[in-house]
Amino acid sequence: MTTRPMAVTPGDPAGIGPDLVLQAAADAAWPGGLAVFADPEALARRARELGLVVGLHEWHPGESLPCTGLAVHPVPLAQRAEPGRPDPANAPATLAALDRAVTAVMEGHCQGLVTGPISKAVISEGTSLPFSGHTEYLAERAGASHPVMMLVGGNLRVALVTTHLPLRAVPDAVTPERVKRTVRTVAEALANDFAVLEPHILVTGLNPHAGEGGHLGDEEQRIIGPALDAVRAELGASAQVEGPVPGDTAFTPRCLREADAVICMYHDQGLGPLKQQAFGGAVNVSLGLPFVRTSVDHGTAFDLAGSGNAGGGSFREAIALARTLSANRARANE
Ligand SMILES: NC(=O)c1ccc[n+]([C@@H]2O[C@H](COP(=O)([O-])OP(=O)(O)OC[C@H]3O[C@@H](n4cnc5c(N)ncnc54)[C@H](O)[C@@H]3O)[C@@H](O)[C@H]2O)c1
Ligand SMILES: N[C@H](C(=O)O)[C@H](O)COP(=O)(O)O
């Protein structure tokens, strides 16, 4: 089944997502092929702007892929997409592309989903949805109760207990249940999707110096520490869970030496160090979904859309990793 195409959504049509899809299609023949869910006219226009020659062929889930060129499942935009000028009027079509791609994956027509970058603000302004990110949106669509965002790049795998929420809401969102479920989901994904057995997982604290014994915050003593004790007892020898460790030194080479993944309490605690090390070549993976989904490590970069200067490394890595994870998951489920 690994010869099924990978579903691809370019993300915001005014961002660099369409550029990355077209560059990837022009550069290489992807094993299994790509099926892009997008407006074909907008893609064709962007290809001309970029000087790329890519044949676009209408495709519908269940059909064979064309022998050459790029398969495109048509999802028309409401307005002409101008590079670098996001238009909330196109937000419903951006989400419709995602919805149709998810359906194609869940119905087994595609082996996984690779998404280009979306502006959460544009989706929130152009739809009635309070859109906080693909991770949360896809989980809701797929009926998954606890998605976990992990970014993979350099020598790091970094997962988050909380994702897209205001910093002031973070402490209340770090609950024992959320900490336990995140560790479980990461341990399971490492084993099944990444083929890392008996992983060593580092978990950070929330406060400076992991709370300094309660003098700089007590979430480590009240919530994170007891949650980790409980999940350690549950996982037994199947995973080694260390923490809460101070967030500032968790990413030093000595702490990372044995770690297969680091779980951080909030977005910038974990993604800052990862993007410092690997921005442009890292991959965002949604764990805890019933299908494989990967994405780029960067945003819409409206300043670069249509210029030909967007680096395609993260997008290509996202396609490659989605294929590896799908194959590993299929093997684990045999
Ligand atoms: N996977 C996703 O959907 C995703 C990921 C991250 C951010 N976003 C969204 O993107 C929007 C813009 O976010 P931002 O400005 O914080 O980050 P950004 O990644 O879009 O841009 C940060 C900087 O990096 C540069 N950059 C980004 N991608 C690049 C590439 N491929 N090649 C060369 N340079 C690149 C940009 O030009 C900019 O200077 C936000 O709405 C955010 O929510 C979406
Ligand atoms: N937090 C991600 C990042 O910084 O790369 C990004 O916003 C994308 O998140 P979703 O995959 O949930 O859209």
Automatic annotation (TrEMBL):
List where in the cell it is found.
Cytoplasm
**Keyword NAD found:** yes
This protein's assembly is summarised as:
Homodimer.
Database matches in PANTHER family:
4-HYDROXYTHREONINE-4-PHOSPHATE DEHYDROGENASE
**Catalytic activity, EC:** 1.1.1.262
- Keywords (A to Z) from UniProt: Cobalt, Cytoplasm, Magnesium, Metal-binding, NAD, NADP, Oxidoreductase, Pyridoxine biosynthesis, Zinc
Single GO term (MF): zinc ion binding
Residues where a divalent metal cation binds: 164, 209, 267
Any one Pfam family here would be: PdxA
Q: What is the lineage of its organism?
A: Bacteria, Pseudomonadati, Pseudomonadota, Gammaproteobacteria, Thiohalorhabdales
What does this protein do, in the record's words?
Catalyzes the NAD(P)-dependent oxidation of 4-(phosphooxy)-L-threonine (HTP) into 2-amino-3-oxo-4-(phosphooxy)butyric acid which spontaneously decarboxylates to form 3-amino-2-oxopropyl phosphate (AHAP).
Q: Which reaction does it catalyse?
A: 4-(phosphooxy)-L-threonine + NAD(+) = 3-amino-2-oxopropyl phosphate + CO2 + NADH
Q: How is the cofactor bound?
A: Binds 1 divalent metal cation per subunit. Can use ions such as Zn(2+), Mg(2+) or Co(2+).
Name of this protein: 4-hydroxythreonine-4-phosphate dehydrogenase
UniProt miscellaneous comment: The active site is located at the dimer interface.
User: What family is this protein classified in?
Assistant: Belongs to the PdxA family.
Indicate the enzyme's highest-level EC class: oxidoreductase
Cellular component annotations (GO), alphabetically ordered: cytoplasm
For this UniProt entry, what is the primary localization, expressed as one broad class?
A: cytoplasm
One GO biological process this protein is involved in is:
pyridoxine biosynthetic process
Pathway membership, UniProt:
Cofactor biosynthesis; pyridoxine 5'-phosphate biosynthesis; pyridoxine 5'-phosphate from D-erythrose 4-phosphate: step 4/5
* InterPro entries for this protein: PdxA, PdxA_fam
The Swiss-Prot or TrEMBL record lists the needed cofactor(s) as: Zn(2+); Mg(2+); Co(2+)
